[in-house]
Specification:
The complex is a heterodimer of chains A (about 650) and B (about 300). With about 650 residues, chain A is of the alpha+beta class. Chain A contains seven helices and 39 strands. The longest helix of chain A is centred in the N-terminal third of the chain and has 18 residues. Chain A is elongated and about 90 Å long. The N and C termini of chain A lie far apart (about 75 Å). Classes of the chains: A alpha+beta (about 650), B mainly alpha (about 300).
Chain lengths: ~650, ~300
C-alpha cells in the first residue's frame, strides 16, 4: 500500500501563501461585508474597517451594472465608546475600529441584487457575483426555502472549516444556493469577544456570509461577554436582529429573541442562556403571543440549550436544558411547532416525531407519535395535519457538531439518529413537505427525514414505541421507592436520584470523620446522580472499575431544614449493598452492616443485597445535631468483598415529622 | 511530522475541548486547590447552578466574595439566591459601591427584585420609579416589574401608564399586551377595544383576545357578549390543553375565562396549578383578582 506523508515545510508554505492571498483580498476590511436582517423589501450590509474611510455602497440587478448608490450620509457608523457616539461598539473592539451598517430599502421581493463596497472612489470588494443578496418573498406567500443550520462551531479550527466546505461543495454540486443560514450559538469560542468573532466566525464563513444572512441565537460562550436583557456586547454588535417585526412575526423589543417569516415558514429564535425561561417571563409571553398570531404552514424554532440530549451535555441534569424542556416546549408544542434546532451538546441527535416529552428524566413512554425514521426511502415521512396544529408532533434536533470535539454520554429514548461526527443540517421546505438532512464534514449525507402535511392527521402516543436500541431504562430513575415503611406525609429533603458529591477509588483527606463536617473542602470530589454503584444495572452513576480495585464510596450533600420546622424528625430511605454509615453535621447517626471502624479502617462488613428496594430507617436522637437552614449529610458505603459482583448506594433523606 | 506541528494543527481542538458540567467542575476544583481566585469560585458556582445544586453554588459565591468583595458577577448571583436573608444588605452595598451609571441601574433593579420577593413593595416601587426617572435607557423587565407591583397594590391605572410609556419606548408586544390588560383592569375600553378587535381578526389562536374582549364587554355591561366570547375561548383553549402536561400559559387563560364566567371553583383549580408551578405571581395576578372579585 502506498503511504502518504505531509512535508511540514510544504504545509507551512501553502498555509503562508493562503494567508497572503487572503490578506491581499481583504486589506481594508477587519470584517468583510456580510448580510443581515433581510426582508421582502430591504437588507442590511455590515462591514468593518480599521481606521476611518469614506464609505459608499453601490448595488444593482447585474454584477456589471450597479445602478443604485447609497451615500455616506445614509450609512450608520459605529465606533469604540471613547468616540462618544450614540450607538457605540462594545468596549473590547479596538479604538480604531469602524463598523458600517447600511440599510437598503425599496427593493423588490424575491429578487437577487449585486453590490460593491467603496472607500471614496476605491472599490473594496471585487467585481464578483458572489457579492449579492436576495430579498425574502412577501410574508405569507407561497415560496420554497432552503437553509443551513450549524451549532457550536466557533473554534476557527480544521473541523469547522471542513463542515463549512462540505456544505458549500454540496450546494454547488446540487446547484442549490442557500436562502438563509441559522446558527444555534457558540460561534466564537471561548468568550465571544470581538476578536474571537472576527477570527472564528467572520473569517471562517466569509464566502457564505457575503451573500447569505446568518440568523443567530446566542450561546453560553457568547453569553460570557454579551447580555440578552440589555442587548450589549460583541454578539449584539455582530448581529442585527429584528426587534420591531421588521421581517414578520411580532415585535419583541429585544434582539435576544425574535421571529421572522420566509414565505409561509415562520422562524422563531429564543435566548435559552440568560433570560427568564419560565412561562411567566417576558420571552415566554412574547412567544405565546407570536404563536397565536402566525398563520404560517411550517414553524421552525431555534435556541442554544437542548431540551433533549445525552451528548457532551445531559438534559436530565442541567438546569437551563430542563427549563427549556419543562417550560418552553409545552408552549411551542401547543403552538404547533414542527422542528426545534439546538446546540450546546456536541453531537448530532435527531428525534422521532414526539409530543409532550417534558418529563425529567426524559422517558419514551407516552411521548412518541411516530417511531419510524421519517425517511421517505425508509419508514416513510412523518405525517402531520395541514398548517400549524397544536401537539401534532415535533422533531427535535441537536446540531452541536459544527466544529468542536464531539462526545456522547448516553441515549435519549426517543432519539432516532445519534451520530458522533462533525457536520451540519440542510433543510428544504417546498409546498407541504419539509426535508431535513445531516451532512457530515466529509460531504456525506448521514441522515434524511421528511415531514409531509396533508389533510387532517390525528396522532396519539404509541403504546409500545420502538425506542432507540441503545436505550436502557434505568429502574432507579423511574420507579418509586419500594418500601412500605416510610411514614405517611414524609417530605423529601434529598430526593431519589438527587445529585451528591462523591469520592470513589480513594479515601477522604484528613481525620476519619473530617469529611463529614460542614466546611470540608470538596474541591477534589465529583458530582453524581444517585444511585451509585455497579453490576446490577440500576445505577445512575456507575463505577465500572470498582470491582477488584476498591470497596468504599463516600457521598455528601447539603440539605435545608425548613426554618419553621418544629421538633423535626428525619429518616433515611436507602437502597444499599452491602453496608453504610451515615453522618449528620459530623456526627454518626446510623450504621448498617459495618462491624467496626470507619473509612479505610472499616471492617467486619456484612453482606446485604439491595434487590431494587429501599429500606427505611428513622434517624433517632439527632435533634442536637440539627440546625435550621443548611445541614450536611455524609454517607460512606462499603462492599463486603473487593471482587463482589455489585455495589449499590442510593439514599433519600426524608423529613418525617415537623 | 514534528510534535510541535501536530500540536499546532490540533491546537484549536485542544483549546476548545469542551467538557460536560461535571468535568468542568472537577477541572475548576483542581485549579481552586492550587491557586484559588474569586473568578474560579464564581465559574464553579455557575456550573453548580447549572446542575441545580443551589447550596454548593451559594457556598462558592460566598467564597468568591471572600476573595474579592467587589466581584460583580458573584455579588449579583448571591443577591438573587432565593431566601438569602442578606440579599437586601448586599444589594444596598452594591448600589453604594457603584460609580458607573450602568452599575447603579443594575443595583437599583436588584433592590427592586429583592424587595418584591420579600413583600416590601414600597421599596420595590420606589426603586423602579427611580430607574425610570434617572435613566433614559433601561430594560423592559423593569417596567414589567413596576407595573406588576402597581397591580398588586390595586393601582391598575398607574400600571397602565407605566406600561404605555414603556411600550412607546420599546415597542414590545409583551408590553403592549400588558398595557391592554392593565387598562382593562382600570376600566378603560375606548382605546383598547379597537386594538383587541384588530387582533381577533388577524390571529390564528384567538382565546386570549376573546377573553380580553369579554373583559371589555363586562366593563361596558354587555354580559351576553362577554359570555359568548368566554365560551368560544374555552372551546379553543380546551382543544390546545393537554390534561397531563399542559402549557401553563393556556391554564392561566382558561382560569381567567372560568373566573369571568363565574365558575370560580374551576378557576381556583387552575390557579392552584399555577401556584404549584415555578411561575412568578405575574402570570396569575389578574386571575387572582378576578377570583377574589364579587362576581359578574
Amino acid at each position: 500500500m502506498k503511504s502518504y506523508s505531509i512535508n511540514p515545510m510544504r504545509y507551512f508554505l501553502i498555509a503562508f501563501l493562503c494567508c497572503l492571498t487572503a490578506h491581499a483580498d481583504s486589506t481594508r476590511f477587519v470584517r468583510a461585508p456580510y448580510l443581515q436582517l433581510a426582508t421582502h423589501d430591504s437588507i442590511r450590509i455590515v462591514w468593518r474597517t480599521s481606521g476611518s474611510s469614506d464609505p459608499h455602497v453601490r448595488f444593482g440587478s447585474a454584477v456589471q451594472n450597479l445602478t443604485h448608490h447609497v451615500a455616506k450620509e445614509k450609512i450608520l457608523t459605529r465606533q469604540h465608546p471613547s468616540a462618544g457616539q450614540a450607538h457605540p461598539l462594545f468596549k473590547d473592539a479596538p479604538v480604531d475600529t469602524y463598523q458600517f451598517e447600511v440599510t437598503i430599502t425599496g427593493l423588490k421581493p424575491s429578487e437577487t441584487y449585486y453590490y460593491a463596497i467603496y472607500d471614496g472612489e476605491t472599490r473594496l470588494t471585487p467585481e464578483d457575483a458572489s457579492y449579492r443578496f436576495k430579498t425574502h418573498p412577501v410574508p405569507g406567500t407561497e415560496a420554497p426555502v432552503y437553509f443551513w443550520v450549524v451549532g457550536d462551531s466557533g473554534t476557527g479550527g480544521k473541523d469547522q472549516a471542513a463542515v463549512h466546505t462540505a456544505m458549500v461543495e454540496h450546494n454547488q454540486k446540487k446547484g442549490k444556493p442557500l436562502d438563509l443560514y441559522i446558527h444555534v450559538g457558540d460561534m466564537a469560542y471561548q468568550s465571544g469577544t470581538n476578536q474571537e468573532f472576527s477570527d472564528r466566525f467572520f473569517q471562517m464563513y466569509e464566502p457564505t456570509l457575503r451573500n447569505t444572512v446568518c440568523w443567530a441565537s446566542m450561546g453560553n460562550h457568547e453569553g460570557r461577554t454579551s447580555k440578552g436583557s440589555t442587548g450589549v456586547g460583541p454578539y449584539y454588535d455582530a448581529y442585527i436582529c429584528p426587534t420591531q417585526a421588521e421581517a414578520g412575526g411580532l415585535a419583541s423589543g429585544k434582539e435576544a429573541f425574535y421571529s421572522f417569516d420566509y414565505g409561509r415558514t415562520h422562524f422563531i429564535c429564543l435566548d435559552s442562556h440568560d433570560l427568564d425561561r419560565r412561562p411567566s417571563g417576558e420571552m415566554a409571553q412574547w412567544l405565546k403571543a407570536d404563536l397565536e398570531k402566525t398563520q404560517a404552514d411550517f414553524l421552525i424554532v431555534y435556541f442554544h440549550h437542548p431540551p433533549y440530549t445525552k451528548g457532551s451535555h445531559d438534559s436530565d441534569l442541567e438546569g437551563q436544558l430542563i427549563e427549556m424542556r419543562e417550560h418552553i416546549m409545552p408552549i411551542l408544542e401547543s403552538g404547533g411547532v414542527d422542528l426545534v434546532f439546538t446546540g450546546h451538546s456536541h453531537i448530532y441527535e435527531r428525534s422521532m416525531l414526539i409530543d409532550g416529552a417534558y418529563h425529567t428524566p426524559s422517558i419514551g413512554d407516552g411521548v412518541v407519535l411516530d417511531d419510524g425514521d421519517g425517511d421517505p426511502a425508509g419508514d416513510g415521512p412523518y405525517l402531520k395535519s395541514e398548517g400549524l396544529q397544536p401537539n401534532n408532533g415535533t422533531v427535535s434536533i441537536v446540531t452541536g457538531h459544527g466544529g468542536t470535539r464531539n462526545s456522547r454520554k448516553g441515549t435519549i429514548p426517543f432519539m432516532k439518529r445519534i451520530i458522533v461526527e462533525h457536520g451540519s443540517c440542510l433543510i428544504s421546505i417546498s409546498g407541504n413537505t419539509l426535508t431535513g438532512q445531516m451532512l457530515n464534514s466529509q460531504g456525506v449525507i448521514r441522515d434524511t427525514f421528511s415531514i409531509v402535511k396533508k389533510g387532517t392527521v390525528k396522532h396519539a402516543p404509541l403504546e409500545n414505541p420502538k425506542l432507540h436500541p441503545d436505550y436502557r431504562p434505568n429502574p432507579s430513575k423511574t420507579a418509586a421507592p419500594k418500601t412500605s415503611a416510610i411514614p405517611k406525609g414524609s417530605m423529601p429533603l434529598i430526593d431519589q436520584g438527587a445529585n451528591w458529591s462523591y469520592l470513589a477509588g480513594a479515601h477522604p483527606d484528613g481525620k476519619p470523620i473530617a469529611w463529614t463536617t460542614p466546611g470540608f473542602n470538596l474541591s477534589s470530589w465529583k458530582i453524581g446522580k444517585a444511585g451509585f454503584g455497579y453490576g446490577d444495572d440500576d445505577d445512575a452513576t456507575t463505577f465500572p472499575k470498582m470491582k477488584g480495585s476498591f470497596q468504599s464510596v463516600y457521598l455528601r450533600s447539603n440539605f435545608t431544614l425548613p426554618l419553621d420546622a418544629k421538633d423535626p424528625q428525619l429518616g433515611l430511605a436507602i437502597s444499599y449493598d452491602d453496608a453504610f454509615i451515615a453522618y449528620i453535621n459530623g456526627h454518626e447517626v446510623l450504621r448498617k452492616g459495618v462491624g467496626k471502624g470507619r473509612g479505610k479502617k472499616a471492617s467486619n462488613v456484612g453482606l446485604h443485597e439491595a434487590d431494587g428496594k429501599f429500606d427505611f430507617f428513622p434517624l433517632k436522637e439527632i435533634s442536637e445535631f440539627l440546625k435550621p437552614g443548611k445541614n450536611v449529610i455524609a454517607i460512606e458505603g462499603h462492599n463486603a468483598e473487593i471482587n463482589s459482583s455489585d455495589f449499590s448506594l442510593h439514599p433519600i433523606l426524608l423529613l418525617t415529622k415537623g | 511530522m514534528s510534535r510541535n506541528l501536530i500540536l499546532f494543527l490540533l491546537l484549536p481542538q485542544i483549546l476548545f475541548a469542551h467538557h460536560d458540567v461535571q468535568t468542568t467542575i472537577l477541572e475548576l476544583s483542581k485549579k481552586i486547590e492550587t491557586r484559588p481566585t474569586a473568578e474560579l469560585f464564581y465559574q464553579r458556582a455557575l456550573e453548580y447552578r447549572a446542575l441545580r445544586n443551589a447550596l454548593l453554588a451559594e457556598e462558592d459565591l460566598r467564597a468568591a466574595l471572600k476573595l474579592d468583595p467587589n466581584h460583580r458577577g458573584a455579588l449579583t448571583a448571591l443577591i438573587l439566591v432565593p431566601e438569602n436573608p442578606q440579599a437586601m444588605e448586599l444589594a444596598e452595598s452594591f448600589l453604594a459601591a457603584s460609580a458607573d451609571p450602568q452599575h447603579q441601574l443594575e443595583a437599583l433593579y436588584l433592590i427592586a427584585q429583592v424587595a418584591e420577593r420579600s413583600g416590601d413593595f414600597q421599596v420595590a416601587l420606589s426603586s423602579c420609579a427611580k430607574i425610570e426617572e434617572s435613566f433614559s435607557k433601561f430594560p423592559s423587565e423593569i417596567s414589567l416589574l413596576h407595573s406588576r407591583l402597581l397591580l398588586s397594590e390595586k393601582k391598575a391605572d398607574k400600571a397602565a401608564e407605566v406600561l404605555k410609556k414603556a411600550y412607546e419606548k420599546h415597542q414590545s408586544v409583551v408590553l403592549r399586551n400588558a398595557w391592554i390588560d392593565a387598562s382593562l383592569s382600570a376600566g378603560e375600553t375606548t382605546i383598547t377595544l379597537p386594538l383587541i378587535e384588530d387582533e381577533i381578526s388577524s390571529s390564528r389562536f384567538r382565546a386570549s383576545w376573546w377573553i380580553r374582549r369579554a373583559r371589555a364587554s363586562l366593563i361596558l355591561k354587555r354580559p351576553q357578549e362577554a359570555r359568548a366570547d368566554l365560551n368560544a375561548a374555552l372551546l379553543e383553549l380546551n382543544s390546545r390543553i393537554q390534561p397531563d402536561r399542559p402549557d401553563l400559559t393556556l391554564i392561566a387563560d382558561r382560569g381567567l375565562a372560568l373566573a369571568l364566567l363565574g365558575s370560580k371553583a374551576l378557576a381556583r383549580r387552575d390557579l392552584e396549578q399555577l401556584k404549584a408551578s415555578t411561575l412568578s405571581k405575574s402570570a396569575y395576578i389578574i386571575l387572582s383578582s378576578e377570583i377574589e372579585a364579587p362576581g359578574h
